[in-house]
Amino acid sequence: QVQLVESGGGLVQAGGSLRLSCAASGRTFSNYPMAWYRQPPGKAREFVADISGSGGITNYRDSVKGRFTISRDNAKNTVALQMNSLKPEDTAVYYCATSKRATMGMYDYWGQGTQVTVSS
């Protein structure tokens, strides 16, 4: 059974940084892509970034390019999202996700989410 547990959320002032982490268990971690999504207050869940199983391919939504970095440590079964230069519009619940198949862009398993609040 795949389990994803996020941590690292919190309250930060605009311009600050946070690092989110997601611990995965239940299968061979390095075989599958991982992703971060977020759900701003009153809005639908949206893609933030994803990373291939090897870590060699990454994708970002345009609004976070140059500010956020996704990375993974396959030895520790973790994926991280380093968020710099945070803006109030980054406020959201952030979710870690992975796929049933080795296919980027299609995510089936989700963590419980961690709240990120950026104050102006």
Describe this structure as you would to a colleague.
With 120 residues, the protein is an all-beta fold. The chain has no helices and eleven strands. The strands form two sheets. Strands 2, 4, 5, 6, 9, 10 and 11 form a seven-stranded mixed β-sheet that branches. The mean pLDDT is 96.
Notable characteristics:
120 residues, mainly beta, seven-stranded mixed sheet, four-stranded antiparallel sheet, 11 strands
Summarize the structure.
0% of the residues lie in helices and 49% in strands. The chain is mainly beta.
Q: In oligomeric terms, what are we looking at?
A: single chain
Helix content: under 10%
Largest sheet properties: 7 strands, mixed
Give me the number of helical elements: 0
Percentage of residues in DSSP E strands: over 45%
Straight-line N-to-C gap:
40 Å
- Radius of gyration equals 13 Å
Given the helix and strand composition, which structural class is it? mainly beta
> Uncertain segments of ≥5 residues (pLDDT<50)?
none
User: What integer is the average pLDDT?
Assistant: 96
**String of helices and strands:** EEEEEEEEEEE
| Number of DSSP strand runs | 11
What is the approximate shape?
Answer: globular
Blueprint (SSEs and pairs):
Blueprint: E1 3-7, E2 10-13, E3 18-25, E4 34-39, E5 46-51, E6 58-60, E7 68-73, E8 78-83, E9 92-98, E10 109-110, E11 114-119
Parallel strand pairs: 2-11
Antiparallel strand pairs: 1-3, 3-8, 4-5, 4-9, 5-6, 7-8, 9-10, 9-11
